[in-house]
Specification:
CATH superfamily of the largest domain in chain A: Cobalamin-binding domain
CATH architecture of the largest domain in chain A: 3-Layer(aba) Sandwich
Helix content of chain B: 25-40%
Shape of chain B: elongated
Distance between the termini of chain A: 14 Å
Number of domains of chain A: 3
Strand order of the largest sheet of chain A: 6-5-7-8-9
Number of strands of chain B: 11
Largest interface: A-B, 26 and 27 residues
Radius of gyration of chain B: 23 Å
Number of strands of chain A: 15
Helix content of chain A: 25-40%
CATH class of the largest domain in chain A: Alpha Beta
Order of helices and strands of chain A: EHEEHEEHEHEHEHEHHHEEHEEHEEH
Largest sheet of chain A: 5 strands, parallel
CATH topology of the largest domain in chain A: Rossmann fold
Radius of gyration of chain A: 20 Å
Oligomer: heterodimer
Order of helices and strands of chain B: EHEEEEEHEEHEHEEH
Shape of chain A: globular
Strand content of chain A: 15-25%
Distance between the termini of chain B: 18 Å
Largest sheet of chain B: 5 strands, mixed
Number of helices of chain B: 5
Structural class of chain B: alpha+beta
Strand content of chain B: 25-35%
């Protein structure tokens, strides 16, 4: 059964029907937002059942949209989030990715600005490495990108998507060794992106490029599949700990391609999480590494591949 | 009123166009289009530095009390009849600083009363309430800081007699070396 990422948008009235339906079909709800009278469900559902969900949602004013980035956590890295250079392009880019279902984290580097002086510290590097991929939003000059990119990517081993003012060809020239994705035309701007031509079109290109890069990553993982799917692990842990019910975070349990991020203190809960049973005699600790996250005191769960555990649940 | 001369000079075309757009957005946002008459931005990617030189238009005159109020003397009192409230708070500050709060009465929103023993009608009429050049220079420097690339924290600025320049870099600005280029661009701006 292949699960595909979708977003369901509809009225709040009787939306529990949709939640139950997704559950019954064997899908998972990754994130649920209630905004005034509307509800937005970002979920992973079986491919063949999308039409059924659409049909059931129609009387409730619901619609199903395919969102390629549901179930991913993406780092949006900007050289600076300085207040007097607002509005930042990274805000537009991050917001656009959220609409496609991604969980984005904006990472404004403390010393990422400038040409010669740009650098990345250990904490920033480690935080970026906890994501599925990193989108680097750099400036308008090819010369500067060429000069600062090596400093900013040092030690980062997640796929990088490089964006900047110059076109794709120019960006490809600047990155040595090459990065995994390129999107041109998104440099520093003095206004919010509004125009379709020359602004939004590049954000669309960015989504396509991220989907491509993450698709490649998923294919790579499929060669040695994970011992448990992150969405399943999420529902097991959430059923046990009821994090979503008791937390005020927008995504108390964040689903990644190869893991999860639990927004509860590591010191207090790591042992408990490790002992949670997924099936009869298989615990979370058997199929995943429970690590302290560099983001606050969260827990970062890295699911081990089948080759390491010989378990598939 | 549009800017008479507006140019960005840089060897990379995409960057040049992007900064032309950023500069025009910022100048529009801060409402400086009607104040700046000419601006030339030069971006050197090798040093690297950001240089903006330009000219400002003739500024609106200083605002005096007579411009927005009718001053008259009656029964040992000077009565100010305010017709436009825009500069009222600045005016009160000036009057308080000069005569003290206890001697400035404001019986209603549009009337201010001062004792005639303290001052005369013509003196009050000529008092300067607001100098537009002060805030304009602040705004202009702020705008140029905003336009300049992030991280260019070493900077030098100069405004005098309707001309200005602003240079910023991430490297130290050695005296002498960049003066030639600044002088060259100022000359260019005076000629166009």
């Amino acid at each position: 059964m292949t699960l595909v990422p979708i977003t369901y948008k509809g009225g709040i009235y009787r939306h529990d029907i949709i939640i139950d339906l997704i559950d019954d079909l064997g899908g998972y709800i990754v994130q649920k937002h209630i905004i005034a009278q509307d509800v937005v469900l970002q979920s992973l559902v079986p491919k063949d059942d999308i039409e059924l969900i659409r049909k059931m949602g129609r009387p409730l004013g619901g619609d199903v949209i395919e969102s390629p980035l549901v179930g991913t956590e993406i780092a949006v890295v900007s050289p600076s989030l300085d207040i007097h250079h607002l509005p930042h392009t990274s805000c537009d880019a991050a917001e656009y990715m959220r609409r496609s279902g991604a969980k984005t984290n904006m990472i404004g580097l403390s010393r990422g600005f400038g040409k010669r002086i740009a650098n990345l510290n250990f904490e920033e590097r480690d935080v970026i490495n906890e994501h599925d991929c990193a989108v680097f939003l750099l400036g308008n000059f090819e010369e500067c990108i060429r000069h600062k990119l090596p400093a900013l990517r040092r030690g980062i081993h997640v796929p990088i998507i490089l964006t900047g003012g110059p076109d794709v060809e120019a960006l490809k020239r600047t990155a040595n060794p090459p990065v995994q994705g390129y999107v041109g035309g998104i440099g520093r701007k003095g206004h919010r992106m509004k125009k379709q031509e020359g602004e939004i079109e590049f954000l669309d290109a960015l989504i396509t490029e991220i989907s491509k890069v993450l698709g490649e990553k998923r294919e790579e993982i499929a060669k040695d599949p994970l011992s448990v799917s992150p969405a399943r692990l999420m529902s097991v842990i959430d059923d046990e700990l009821e994090i979503t019910k008791s937390s005020t975070h927008p995504t108390p349990v964040t689903v990644q391609i190869t893991g999860l991020k639990l927004k509860i203190p590591y010191e207090d809960y790591s042992e408990y999480v490790r002992a949670i049973k997924i099936e009869e005699d298989i615990t979370v600790g058997d199929v995943a590494e429970i690590l302290p996250s560099r983001m606050r005191n969260y827990i970062w769960i890295k699911i081990k591949p089948f080759s390491e555990t010989n378990i598939m649940v | 009123m549009a800017i008479d001369y507006f140019e960005v000079e840089c060897r990379e075309e995409t960057g040049r166009k992007a900064y032309l757009e950023i500069a025009s957005d910022v100048l529009q946002d801060l409402d400086l289009i009607k104040i700046v008459s000419k601006i030339h931005i030069y971006i050197d990617l090798d040093f690297p530095f950001f240089l903006a030189v330009g000219k400002t238009r003739k500024l609106p005159p200083m605002v005096k009390i007579r411009d927005f109020s009718n001053v008259m003397e009656s029964e040992g009192k000077i009565i100010l009849n305010i017709s436009d409230e825009t500069y009222l708070s600045q005016m009160l500050t000036v009057l308080w600083d000069r005569f003290g709060r206890d001697f400035i009465e404001q019986p209603d929103r549009f009337t201010v009363v001062i004792s005639a023993e303290l001052t005369g009608v013509s003196e009050i009429e000529e008092m300067i309430v607001y100098d537009p050049s002060v805030s304009m220079y602040k705004d202009l420097i702020y705008a140029l800081q905003w336009i300049a690339p992030e991280g260019f924290k070493v900077r030098r600025e100069w405004i005098d007699k309707g001309r200005f320049y602003y240079i910023a870099s991430e490297n130290t600005l050695p005296p002498g070396i960049l003066d030639t280029i600044v002088a060259e661009k100022i000359k260019l701006i005076s000629e166009v």
